[in-house]
Amino acid sequence: MSFDIRKFGLLFSALFIFAATAQAQSAKEIQAALDAAYAKYRDLQEGANADYIPALAAVDSNIYGIALVTTNGKVYTAGDIASEVSIQSISKVFTLAKVMDEQGPEMVANTIGVDATGMRFNSIVSIEFSQKALGGPEMNSLVNPGAIATTSYVKGDTRDAIWNSILSYYSDFAGRPLSVNQEVFKSESDTNQRNQAIGYLMYAYGYIKSEPMRATDIYTEQCSVSVNAKDLAMMAGTLANAGKNPVSKKQVMNAENVPELLAVMATAGLYDDSGKWLYETGLPGKSGVGGGIIAVSPGKFGIAVISPRLDEAGNSVRAQKAIADISAALGGNPLAVKAR
Ligand code: GLU
């Protein structure tokens, strides 16, 4: 049998064209899923901006941006990806990631806990219920008491050193240098007496070892970091890609800690509707009162939507709907598998 190089070449080109088309089609499908969700919810006005932080009430409620970053580094967007909002509670995920990287995931599980509180994100009663003496810690780093304690564990000799290391860690996730919205930071600092009380109580119970007001202040600053939908999607995409930024290719987070981080997001990422969200989408996610939501389809993509109108639970109305639709269209639910 003779080897016909021309036939082989033809077969090879056909395969190549097939593969290239398949890839182009899937890029088209992804863009179509984003466009469809964008159009479907563009006119939805349900919900309202958070207003317990005065600067958030003033944010344009109509901002609506969608971004998706695949683990092979492709970026898709729809709508407004230029406007920035404050990251708010979504920051809690990345400070938790940092502490896991610095001190290991067991430390977080043993000191703060990795359980849902079943109470509001800024509940003071939840601190009482979570005391170690009562069989705790029954808390997690994505509610305010656990988040302020988590921030207090970030390593650094001075406030500046701690802050710079947090901000540069966030920036590596986003793949660009992020900065703080000073107006939001000031507005929240002037009105965060409840978080200060939480900080002191966490100190009184020994969760925070020292300087509770410094921890609360840094926590407030981390919540004021300014992001657009693409930044958030890149941060989520880095988590989807085992801690490696899929575009810059930098290994930002220790890959070994990502499953534990995603587990906490799945447990407590969307306030009191975390169970409902997981039931509907299967996606570890995190929302913030600034109007952003991130969600992670491990190994596939990270997605983010910004839209400031929130529902009663504090989750962006349009962001929840758009992410659920897009993930369903792309088979993003990690809990849904086909039989072999
Ligand atoms: N900085 C906000 C607070 O502490 C974050 C709340 C949130 O986004 O859930 O109240």
How many separate structural domains? 1
User: What do the pLDDT scores average to?
Assistant: 92
Unreliable segments of 5+ consecutive residues = 10-24
Number of E strands: 8
Q: How would the global form be characterised?
A: globular
What would you note in describing this structure?
This protein has 340 residues and is α+β, with helices and mostly antiparallel strands. It has a single domain (5-330), classed as DD-peptidase/beta-lactamase superfamily (Beta-lactamase, 3-Layer(aba) Sandwich), CATH 3.40.710.10. The chain is built from 14 helices and 8 strands. The chain has helices at residues 5-41, 54-57, 90-103, 105-111, 125-129, 144-152, 159-174, 182-191, 193-204, 212-223, 229-240, 258-268, 274-281, 317-330; strands at residues 65-70, 75-79, 85-86, 179-180, 225-227, 285-287, 292-297, 301-306. The strands form 2 sheets. Strands 2-1-8-7-6 form a 5-stranded antiparallel β-sheet. Strand 1 (65-70) and strand 2 (75-79) form a beta hairpin. Helix 3 (90-103) crosses helix 4 (105-111), helix 7 runs parallel beside helix 10 and helix 7 packs across helix 11 (229-240). The protein is globular and about 55 Å long. It starts with a helix and ends in a 10-residue tail after the last helix. The model is unreliable at 10-24 (pLDDT under 50). The site of glutamic acid has 11 residues, from loops.
In short:
The protein has 340 residues and is of the alpha+beta class. Helix content is 50%, strand content 10%. It is built from 14 helices and eight strands.
